[in-house]
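Q: I'm writing a short methods note and want an example of a predicted protein-small molecule complex. Could you take the sequence and the SMILES for fe (ii) ion and return the bound structure as tokens? Please keep the output block clean; save any remarks for afterwards.
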Amino acid sequence: MNSLQQTTPACLHHLRIVSAHPDELVKFYERMLDLTAIPCAKSDDVVMTGPSRAIIVSAQRESNAPYYAYSVSDTLALSRLAERLSVHAVAFAPIDDPLFSGGAIVFCDPQGRRFVFGVAARTEEQGAPARLQHTVFQTTELERVTRFFVDKIGFTISDEVIDAEGGVAVVFLRSDDEHHTLAFFRGSRNEWDHHCYETNDWNDIRDWADRFAAAEVPIFFGPGRHGPGNNLFFMVTDPDGNRLEFSAELQRVRADAEPGVWPQCERTLNSWGRAWMRS
Ligand SMILES: [Fe+2]
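A: Understood, no commentary inside the block.
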């Protein structure tokens, strides 16, 4: 096998979020996620860092596009990834990212989502535990994007959710030992579904839920436990309607594990009760 998990483990490191109301978004992530804006000399993006999490908030304009940034261990790992992209004829370009050291690269998936891979430049900070861990999309072309990330980039399928007709409805993909660092739901739209912060245990989930309760930010899904990944979770939204998930106990998966198969039903997405079913 020649997967990212085995050769070039990669974990979600930060997000670039584009917003029509960036000031509101910055305030939300400062107040609710303990992120602090750091000076960014090269653009008017707001670069925000915190303990094991970071985002870049960009104003909505034609030249600004969102992206999803994964870190690898060092420049050698990054050059291995670049070699893999070249072998599979995936076009990529250098990108100047404020949270990665030099040499970061950007490529697009078949539907134009931008993914950045690089080596983290920042130092760790202390604070409430919530490590940026995975991101998820809805897609009209699930088979096509899955083949791209598995065959060309090196992600591994951890679990699939299969509908009543035998079609694949959800794919969970890993790039390191954690059950998923990326996932795609089949849907009628191509949109960002959510991003997730992994905490240390159930008590952290309680504390984060209490923090959102105090700010009168309601939970819209959960608390519950997902079937695939077996993680505890709840979800809230930021002022732009972007969905944030807080998770604990996410399963770890061996590199040689066979992909799991789950039926498409509420119980798969939330074994504790009702589920948010994408359509
Ligand atoms: Fe998730």
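A: Remarks, as requested: Helices lie at 4-7, 22-33, 75-87, 142-153, 202-214, 266-269. Residues 134, 136, 194, 196, 245 surround fe (ii) ion (CB under 6 Å).
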